[in-house]
Please model this.
Amino acid sequence: MTLAIFNGSPRKQKSNSKILTDHFLQGYRSVAGQKNVITEFLSAKDQMVQNLETFSMATDVIIIFPLYTDSMPGVVKEFLEKIYFLQNNRTKNLGFIVQSGFPEAIHSVYVERYLEKFTRRQGHNYLGTVIKGGVEGIQVMPPGMTRKLFDNFKKLGEHFAEKGEFSNQIMKKLKGPLRMSKVKYIGFSLISKTPLLNFYWNSQLKKNGAWEKRFDRPMETQAKGF
Amino acid sequence: MVTILNGNMKTSPNGFDLYVNDVARALEQTTQVNTFHLADMKIHQCIGCWSCWWKTPGLCAIKDDAEPIMKAVIHSDMVVFASPVIAGFTSSLLKKIQDRLIVLIHPYIEPIKGECHHRKRYDKYPDMALLMQKEADTDDEDEKIIADIYKRLAINFHSNLKHTWFTDTQTTEEIAHDLSHI
Ligand SMILES: Cc1cc2nc3c(=O)[nH]c(=O)nc-3n(C[C@H](O)[C@H](O)[C@H](O)COP(=O)(O)O)c2cc1C
Model:
């Protein structure tokens, strides 16, 4: 078995997708050792030919990406188009990990339907789509807030190395409820009236000296004429 | 005003471009139309740097041909996402400019019906429509998958997906007629 993991984040090395992949791989390698895993970045420059070669030779493929405007980033779609037109496309096990900024799973379940159909249309074996929301802030969160998440990704990797599939139980944990519960929604609505909810954005706006400009509408005010 | 984003790739058959041009021509009788043929433009993918949200609010850091599109979209009553279906979805070229449109939204989050969404940056956002050309094996399920994803996009852009057209079931005049009544 050769596992190839493609990271579809345009942020590449600095991506949340990379952090989650690293935890998955830590678990995976603790069971399978160092062999037979290849990781690639879909946004790396002039990498398409190499990526397609890696895809072709792998038996198991995981594509991990951030949700971008409710589906896959353009570069991930580009890769899927290239795979789609590959000749002699040997059947493989294909799975996806979709992680998003918004915490609710509802945002990612629509693209999941696409990913499943894409896989089946190609005649590949669909391993499922791991969905995880609320990921944007992980690089600035204190370790206590990410421990459970990273642990679950590690376990996901261990299970994958043992069974060649995503663990349903861990997938369920990561996905969480489709929408906020009533109680959470009420709490959230209250918090949204305070600066707490947008603390992440506000602190960065201030750090960048852009706080005063946060409500700017430059596309409206600049000279027209397209 | 209507903005048409034509995501036909250079490698696809150009019958789709002729179709889009016919729609635009018919529509020009009644309204202002901006058609962007993305394959002829320099459009980089969004690199997720958040400059448009926390460094230069409302402005993208990437200097390419995207800004006139962003401006046209926000000044329009309707934006048409036009593309041949490729591998079961609209083209990657179209998706790249679509991702860049987050410049038009505000980073602040607001809860709506148990879901998080971003606040508006502008007062008004255009309605949305999909115009697609089927590939050999496009079926009803594909149509629903694509339309459902664009309905989600519309929610996040404070908009509505008003139409889903396919070139084989709609004449260019019918589409122009629908668009002239927005
Ligand atoms: C252009 C763009 C579009 C995005 N669209 C969505 C979206 O539709 N829903 C969502 O929950 N998060 C969205 N996000 C947030 C990312 O999914 C989130 O920040 C993710 O953790 C980034 O992962 P990465 O560092 O691996 O790229 C978007 C981010 C960008 C830059």
Notes: The two ends of chain B are 9 Å apart (CA to CA). Chain B touches chain A through 59 residues (CB under 8 Å). The mean pLDDT of chain B is 95. The beta strands of chain B are 2-6, 33-37, 78-84, 105-112, 115-120, 127-133, 161-166.
